[in-house]
Structures are given as C-alpha cells and as structure tokens.
Amino acid sequence: MITFTVPGAPVGKGRPKVASRGGRFAQLYTPEKTANYEGLVAHAGQVAMNGRDLIAGAVSVQLDIRLPVPASWSKRKQNEALDGQLLPTKKPDIDNVEKAIFDGLNGVVWNDDVQVVDVTKRKRYSAVPGVRVVIREVTEGE
To answer: How far apart are CA 61 and CA 67, in angstroms?
Structure first.
C-alpha cells in the first residue's frame, strides 16, 4: 500500500488550451496551473514510492479531497463547514481533481492510470487543505 498527501488546495484538471503557431498551425498545451499541480502530485508520489518499482498491475485508489474554507465566510459558516454541516458543492469538480491526481502519478507510481480499477473519493472542507491518496494493488479475484 502507498499512502501520501498532496499538500495545498486541490486543483482540478484544466481543459487543454490552444496556441496558434505561425498562423496555420495550432498547438494544444496544458494550462500552467494544472501542470504545476500535476508536478506537485508527481513529487509527493515519488517520495512515497521511496525508490520502489512502478506498480505493473491493477490498482485501487482512495482520494480524500480537502478544500480550504473560504475566508470571506462568517465564522459561524466556517465552523459549520469544518464540522461537515456544509459540503463543498463548488469547484473544483471531484472528477477533475481525480484526473489531475491520476495524470500526475503516471510514470511515477504506475505506468498509466488505465491500471486503476476501483476508486473511492470524497470532497470536504478542512482547515488543512490537500488530497490524501491511498493506492493498493488489486489481485485477481478481488
């Protein structure tokens, strides 16, 4: 089992941007914010791997996504969010955070995210934002 936390406010995978090159050619690129976050994910995954070989088989992933509580909210509303009475029904989308995490782990923890066969994820507010990632190899018959 591999467990680690990606620190800081979670970032959803951004849509590819298009840049025009020479007037006739277009090039797609990943937005800078997404690329930076995927780099942070890769670093956290690499530290957790501690020199181990990439996982070659099927994996199960748990994501515990913790968003910062907006500072503009009243103290009462902030406390309700931290107590779980208010849920984060705002961006980033839970599936876009998943995509950014998985893409950041390609070639770091596993060969490719097609190896993920089970996913459990949740999104909540927290005083300490980040994403807790738990990766487990899945054996046949599970």
So the answer is: 19
Phi-psi region of 59 (alpha: psi -120 to 50; beta: other; left: phi over 0): beta
DSSP codes joined into one string, 6-35: EESS--PPPPPEEEEETTTEEEEE--HHHH
CA atoms of 11 and 118, how far apart (whole Å): 22
Residue 136's identity, in one-letter code, is R
Q: Which domains does the chain have, with CATH numbers?
A: 2-137 (3.30.1330.70)
Between CA 78 and CA 76 the distance in angstroms is: 5
23-73 pLDDT per residue, tens: 677 777 677 888 899 999 999 999 999 999 999 999 999 999 999 999 999
Residue 57 main-chain phi, psi, to 5 deg: -105, -160
**Residues 27 and 18 sit within 8 Å (Cβ to Cβ):** yes
